[in-house]
Amino acid sequence: MDKKKIAKASGGLHGTIDIPGDKSISHRSVMFSALGDTPVHITNFLHAQDCLSTAACMKSLGAEVRFLNEGELMVTGHGLHGLQEPAGIIDAGNSGTTLRLMMGILAPQPFLTTFTGDASLHHRPMGRVIEPLTRMGACIYGRQQNQKLPITVVPSAEKLHGITYQSPVASAQVKSALLLAGMYADGNTTVIEPFRSRDHTEQMLEAFGAEVEREGNSVTIHPVRTFRTPESIHVPGDISSAAYWLVAGSIVPGSSLLLNHVGVNPTRTGILDVLKAMGAKLEIRNRRISGGEEAADIRVESSFLHGVSFGAEIMPRLIDEIPIIAVAALFADGDTVITGAGELRVKETDRLQAIVDQFNQLAPGAAEGVEDCLIIHGGRPLQQAEVFSYDDHRMAMSLAVLGMAGEGAVLRRPECVNISYPQFYETLAGLC
Ligand code: S3P
């Protein structure tokens, strides 16, 4: 399927949606379980391409990864020092999380690993992880002066050294890679970020018995001797996937949706804060702890939205949601000004440019982008048009919601939703 017709919604959206498992937590659940030595039963795992890349990767390093069902698996490792040299090249597919976190796990190992990935991953900057890992004593080589895939991790002559690293970017992938390498180092490893990024690695490593200290934007890990694997991990729903319905329910008049089992870890809930500031009607119900993470059900009803401004400080808490927040901004009254969004340029595609180019097809003159800044002029007339996903899952889903809430659209290369939300179109059709 090369093109998908997105029909204009004919009335309000109604229904209850079970939000699929969190992508970030699913990756970590398999990786960390594979470093333990007792079986871990993982449920509500995100059965989508990115997380399946991680599962395949851990398998090729010798862990037993057995699917019982879609979304349910048993992972058994051979201990922190039990990974084995893979027989071939490891393919991280489209997944930056797989590649960056795995570099942290593999840098201290006594064997060689070579990584590849898809065309998008070949363009993404890996120096941000390779450079600090090299400071710890790791030997990692990549194309374009150790910046890009293909990448080879070579065993280093000595044990890695603990370092204190002041990261120039607020990135959970950078932070996680260093903390994972730090588990094997000869001393403590500290990562200090400009703003705090998502903390799933810290949370889960603590649950596995690692000694982790956190203070403000700084995290320190102590060298780890053994992992205490839990018997089970239940993955909460992904707020980044719920985001499409939070916005669709807000902007399509007459809608009322209930989103079940959404992860509401405070390092991820920037979209709730921004939508509330825009005037969205959200009700967070039934707050609970699920698999060591905060979760809740969210009711969303359509409402009148107005434009807002936000910047770098909140960015790590909603970085993946900017394309869909920009859709909300299109349907709002007035301008929305988003600054400090430079990281969007190094995601699966240059999302800042992609938003400008594709939104302007459906709402001429509505989107402007300069450097790290995105401006959306709300309330511009909408039209039907053909738009392009750039093979970026979050662009595809945001454009589909835009088309559905607007005048309809034809989406080129729609299949990339399989990266994080394979049931997306089915759920969309069920609501209309
Ligand atoms: C992720 C971190 C974020 C996010 C990505 C998932 C993670 O990337 O955009 O989708 O699971 O750690 P950065 O760390 O590059 O900001």
The small molecules bound here are: shikimate-3-phosphate
Largest beta-sheet details: 4 strands, mixed
Provide the gyration radius in Å: 21 Å
Domain unit count: 2
- What general form does the structure show? globular
CATH domain topology of the largest domain:
UDP-n-acetylglucosamine1-carboxyvinyl-transferase, Chain
CATH class of the largest domain: Alpha Beta
Q: What's the average pLDDT?
A: 98
SSE-based structural type: alpha/beta
* Spans of at least 5 consecutive residues with low confidence: none
CATH superfamily caption of the largest domain: Enolpyruvate transferase domain
How large is the count of helical segments? 14
The percentage helix is: 25-40%
Binding site for phosphoenolpyruvate: 23, 96, 124, 173, 351, 394
EC number: 2.5.1.19
Function: Catalyzes the transfer of the enolpyruvyl moiety of phosphoenolpyruvate (PEP) to the 5-hydroxyl of shikimate-3-phosphate (S3P) to produce enolpyruvyl shikimate-3-phosphate and inorganic phosphate.
Catalytic activity: 3-phosphoshikimate + phosphoenolpyruvate = 5-O-(1-carboxyvinyl)-3-phosphoshikimate + phosphate
